Q: What sequence folds into this?
């Protein structure tokens, strides 16, 4: 049994889903209207969440001592939070032709921070990937100590794929030597296999979204209609 | 030419018929609820499941030996309605497992859309279990801004980075986080997202001077090929692969569930069945399309030869 407040939400939700899926038939104003509604709601929701979860509790309340209990004393050093705030607000000067340089200072600082973080992140993430790419072509079973043919085949396939795909992306010389040409062609085909996997995965994801909406329509929405009918017209 | 057109009717099927067939295929598990298939036991999902089991064992051993055990599991639900279909069931499955094993955990999100799920999923599941309480067993930090910078700070100083939970309780007063100071006190971090670069943020920056926690990942089907890089190179210890991962995880939970514990949600299994039927249908369509192309080519060659 849904609460009375939940019923309108479920009913509107069902209409929204049908409106968006009506695009599968053809482009239509019903779809276009709800697309704009969705974008508007998303943007508005993000702003409200930003204020509710960050601007109000972590910035305004703290900086101006609005969260203090009667017996607590305000620490004026909290006002230092205004320095990065004012600096950050400088980005709004990008709207001004005369003072646009102020916005560039803010963007420059942001780029500097991001570049530094990306540098650290590169080593933390990509070095393990590079190290992992060096795989032994002769592998032994960790428990029995015998040759592990399964792992050897897997490693060989991995190394061949890696070399072929990298050869394809060597553009510093012409691929006219037979070995390089064949490795490059093999690299292209191996990448196409990967794209096939990507395509299959994408289809799988889209199906999952559709199934979820179908379940919503066939269970929640139908029940919502029934309960709305009971509520308005009686059992 | 007219003959060639007649032979290639397979290539001219209106896409709306294809949609209609897919729709009917996907409706099968809803129309016949008994017709669900058992999901494949995915090894990548099993690794994550086993990690949670190991945490429970380590905690029990520590308690039995009288040692303090202050570690928690951290979950980040960085998804919204767009990817809810795949990610909600896996978030639900993981939290159910943590609650079954009474492992303390914290949830948070880096995206505004995720705040509702951080609230709903643990609270709804806590109602199914008799002895799980907010604050003592789990905590919700809701939406936190800062992303990379926040994660970096969390790695070194959890209290300084997270400050308060959604109810405004200061970090130091949250019971389940007593003794949790930095990334070294996190037994497992799991990022559930369909967004590119979010799992990578944790891999790159969530570490303290003394330890880097194990990281698990739940992703949408679209990002599975990307996520496999991280799994193969052991940057993550386990992976939930789309709805199939969620369905497999639920099956693992069912295997260890006792009579007095609430059952898992059948949703992931129903979704998986619908998807299986739709995949078979799509394979059929791809084959038919190829037959159409070959027939059309043969017909053209025949016409050109005559």
A:
């Amino acid at each position: 049994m849904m609460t009375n407040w939940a019923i309108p939400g479920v009913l509107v939700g069902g209409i929204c889903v049908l409106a968006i899926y009506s695009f599968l038939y053809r482009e239509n104003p019903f779809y276009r209207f709800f697309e704009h509604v969705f974008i508007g709601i998303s943007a508005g929701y993000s702003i409200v969440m930003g204020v509710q979860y960050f601007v109000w509790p972590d910035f305004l309340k703290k900086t101006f001592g609005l969260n203090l209990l009667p017996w607590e004393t305000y620490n004026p050093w909290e006002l230092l939070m205004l320095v990065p705030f004012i600096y950050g607000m400088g980005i709004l000067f990008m709207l001004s032709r005369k003072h646009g340089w102020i916005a560039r200072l803010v963007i420059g600082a942001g780029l500097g921070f991001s570049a530094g973080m990306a540098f650290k992140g590169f080593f933390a993430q990509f070095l393990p990937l590079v190290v992992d790419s060096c795989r032994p072509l002769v592998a032994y079973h960790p428990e029995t100590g015998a040759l592990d043919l399964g792992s050897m085949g897997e490693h060989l396939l991995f190394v061949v794929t890696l070399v072929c795909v990298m050869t394809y992306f060597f553009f510093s010389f012409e691929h006219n030597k037979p070995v390089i040409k064949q490795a490059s062609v093999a690299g292209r085909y191996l990448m196409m296999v990967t794209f096939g996997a990507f395509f299959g995965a994408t289809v799988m994801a889209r199906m999952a979204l559709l199934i979820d909406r179908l379940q919503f329509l066939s269970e929640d929405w139908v029940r919502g209609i029934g309960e709305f009918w009971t509520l308005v017209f009686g059992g | 030419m007219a003959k060639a057109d007649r032979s290639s009717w397979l290539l001219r099927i209106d896409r709306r018929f294809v949609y209609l067939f897919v729709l009917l295929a996907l409706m099968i598990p809803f129309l016949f609820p008994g017709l669900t298939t058992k999901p494949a036991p995915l090894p990548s999902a099993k690794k994550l499941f086993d990690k949670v089991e190991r945490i429970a064992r380590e905690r029990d051993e520590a308690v039995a030996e009288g040692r303090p055990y202050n570690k928690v599991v951290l979950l980040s639900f960085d998804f919204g309605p767009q990817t809810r279909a795949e990610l909600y069931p896996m978030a639900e499955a993981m939290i159910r497992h943590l609650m079954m094993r009474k492992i303390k955990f914290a949830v948070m999100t880096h995206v505004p859309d995720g705040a509702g799920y951080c609230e709903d999923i643990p609270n709804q599941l806590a109602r199914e279990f008799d002895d799980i309480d907010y604050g003592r067993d789990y905590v919700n930090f809701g939406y936190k801004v800062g992303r990379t910078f926040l994660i970096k700070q969390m790695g070194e100083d959890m209290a300084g980075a997270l400050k308060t939970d959604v109810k405004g309780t200061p970090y130091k007063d949250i019971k389940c986080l007593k003794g949790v100071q930095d990334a070294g006190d996190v037994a497992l971090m799991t990022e559930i997202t369909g967004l590119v670069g979010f799992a990578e943020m944790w891999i790159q920056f969530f570490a303290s001077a003394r330890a880097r926690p194990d990281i698990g990942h739940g992703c949408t089907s679209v990002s599975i090929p990307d996520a496999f890089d991280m799994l193969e190179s052991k940057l993550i210890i386990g992976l939930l692969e789309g709805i199939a991962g969620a369905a497999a995880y639920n099956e693992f939970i069912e295997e260890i569930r006792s009579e007095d514990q609430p059952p898992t949600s059948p949703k992931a299994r129903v979704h998986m069945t619908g998807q299986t039927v739709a995949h078979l249908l799509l394979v059929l369509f791809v084959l038919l399309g190829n037959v159409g192309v070959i027939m059309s080519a043969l017909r053209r060659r025949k016409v050109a030869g005559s």
